[in-house]
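User: Fold this, then the next.

Assistant: Folding the first:
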Amino acid sequence: MKGELTSGIYWVGAIDWNIRNFHGYSTHKGTTYNAYLVMGEKIALVDTVKAPFAGEMVEGINNIIAPESIDYLIINHVEMDHSGSLPLIRETLPRVKILCSPRAEEELKHHYGEEIPLSVVKTGDVLELGGKTLTFVEVPMVHWPDSMVTYVKEDKVLLPNDAFGQHMATSERFDDEVGWDIIRPELAKYYANIVMPYGAQVLKALEALKGIEIEVIGPSHGLIWRQYIPQVVATYEKWAKGETEKRCIIVYDTMWGSTEKMAGAIYRGLTEEGVPTKMYRLSNSDRSDIVKEMLEARGLLLGSPTLNNGLYPSVAEFSTYIKGLRPKGRIAAVFGSYGWGMGATKTLSGDLQAAGMEVVDDLQVKFVPLGEKIDKCEHLGRRVAQMIKAP
């Protein structure tokens, strides 16, 4: 059966073909909301779907069993794209027992009311379904405090909610039906925009899962992993450690073209030193796509013209965004043009330092970069390139 992970474990999620924005993160390829039916002598539903798609989930369940046969609902994570169908489940299946982590108990009551009946499970707790054994592991801050994973021992199936997810709407359900080269960029974009601030917690979660045999990973979004598990786990570990590659991105916006001229000269310096570099003008680019590129780039140059003694609006938005993502360990420099008053690069330096980056230079040009000012921009590019290439 399509969507059968292993014998007795089924995907009963929903496909959202049309979503293009996920709390500020662009989803050009839509997404899926994955829920899973685990069938032993008793039956558990692991996670639900976003509320508007509850009917699609119920239809999927109906294709396998009568929904009233479900004994347990496991809430791995409270966020509404996963718990959103909980009110419908409670209404239609009043006898179902709801299990969640200790932190999720409080959060679910805030979302759905104090009267909701919940049973708390902790790391190492086991639920015997009869032929299927569910073990729970708390993974706080991957990526909410309440997050946990559910492991089905007999089938070596890990259901980790948001971990290892990607925003992709597809008619295929499994990684080998699509291919690593297609999925990896979406995995990277998801990690960069959602999980990146929690690298230390990801490493703890990966350590907690070591020693567990895993043959299938069913995340809460995107494709289910069954062929590329070693690759996805190794890639997550690399990103969580903040390991980068010897390349750079230049991100900027411009008012009258001066900051753009600076960006072009910096680019020449970088590429003449042999550092692969991509350049993005913010008013023409998607910030979450840029952040995906930043995930594995060792260098970041961020530029802004000064406007009213501060940042150009599009740069201010991007700077605030990455400050929250905290991409530590990058080599960074800031640049920009100004007229009668400075201010932009000072703010940029502060934002990048607050994000955990080393800011190695602050280059400012009054009005239009000409002659030796262009030379200084190229020199900055070469200097940063040398730092990027250093062992």
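Now the next one, as you asked:
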Amino acid sequence: MAIIKKKKIPFKISPKLRAYLEKYKREIEVPIEYEDLLRYDNSIALYDRKGVDTLWETVFYPQDDMRDIYYALKKIYSVIKADGDVKVMDHLKIDRVDVCTFGNTQPFRVRIVNQVNDNFDYFYIKNADSSRIYGLELEHLLSPNRISYVVHKETLIEEHIAGIPGDQFIKHHIQDKRLNEIRLAKEFVKFNERCFVRLLGDMHSSNFVVNVIPDFEEVSYRLKAIDFDQQSYEGRKNIYLPQYFKQNNPLIELGLRHMTPESVKQYQKEERSLIANRLRVAKYRVVDLIKTMIGDTISFPKNVKSLRGELAKYYQEDSFLKCENMGELVKMSLWMVIKKPDLYGEK
């Protein structure tokens, strides 16, 4: 069982990471920062349609501030959705701004509505944390999912990642008779492998979403990470394996019912092969990112020392023991996908 005992320590954006973000157009100018959203003077608890507390609070701003803040938020939306074309703003309105005081980073969530058809969308504004930025970038480059985010000074702006929250999917959908249990179990195996290879931790059911994708005969599933704070931070190997979080046990049980060890290995090999292909396609950008990580600090020496020992034992590869930081461990882990493509199975 995987348990994280201590709160994650955030790390500031380093000059090298800032240079990387500028090079790949992730650093932009926007008219508002995270600190500006803290100027609210009142808030109320936000409940879902069933009257359950969501742990988010809807915030309200003084009348003098609200007009400027809402206009700036619409401008941000135009930047991340339409390359800054302000013409798209005319029919948009800010429906509400929520804050999650329960979360480590206390993010703000902005709900924006199209007044023509009442369609709505979300985006998030957070304090920038290097770990999360590396996690977002690795997800964008090495997973099947494209990630839209930008940074302005110490503010991180993220597009909403749509899907059914994993914990809600397990609670309300996993007993559905129409559920394709085999395909869902297969996707969890592949998701588990993706997280482990790029060292993304803390993927319990509250930190990923499930996409249900109609097929011409059946449905398929895609698991997407939505929380990247624990990218290459913890010192225990099992933290990077969703299979060890008790919240995910219902998904594990599906696998035990429907898959043999041989089929699990097949799906693991398939995913590692896909990651290897993505590495080849995005080779130069991945190299830039890993060089930046190696020159950065996103964890503590005791965590690095502990994790490198566990990874060296698992991969039977002493080269891990020479790694001095998390960037080098990620580099070595990715190299194992190419060097030892057949080393997979029980972790």
